[in-house]
Amino acid sequence: MIASFGVYGLSLLAGVLSILSPCVLPLVPILVGTALNTHRYGPYALALGLAISFTAVGVFIATIGASIGIDQEVFRVIAAVLLITFGIVLLSSTLQEKFASATAGIGGSGNTLLSKVSTDSLSGQFVLGLLLGIVWSPCVGPVLGATITLASQGANLAHVTLVMALFGLGAGLPLILLGLLSRQAMMRVRSKLFTVGKIGKRILGAILLLVGLLIITGLDKQFETLIVAASPDWLISLTTRY
User: Fold this and answer.
1) CB 98 within 8 A of CB 233
2) Total count of domains within the chain
């Protein structure tokens, strides 16, 4: 449906914002700099590993609900509550810090693995990217969780995979773009990226809060009906073809 395009756009935005988290962004210039010293395509290998990691984790979690046979209407309510919760968390820096602290143990095993990974090759950078998806999960938890919740409402595995792949792509894009800058330029834009990420998270939080409220009140279906009625035939045909 047409609403899926909104979900895809939100998932890509969420992926970008996940890397701009306060506990992640300070490490990004170091990781990108190390990747560049390893190979000119090091940041690409790092970004690819991170994208695949987030996609795999997201698809696995998002498909659990369908596999245990939760009633669709019950799941809609659960999804709405989760989106409202994640939206509130993203609107508050204090709540984000508490969320990261509460889930810090999740990345413990990942940190141990990171210390054992050799990063002096493209394959090493790729593996590092895979592990970063685990290590960074506590920091990006609210954003990742919201994306997984959105993906879980999809009717098929292809939709879920695409939503999570877009999140992974969004997470990898800043690494690639920073890899194109010089070290000096990278450090100059870091503070600006932090500000953008902070504002962007609040905007995303407000959107998630609104979406959750629309779902829990049933107004989302009415809203989608209005969108379909106002959309041209070619767009409706495109969104219902696959």
Assistant:
1) no
2) 1
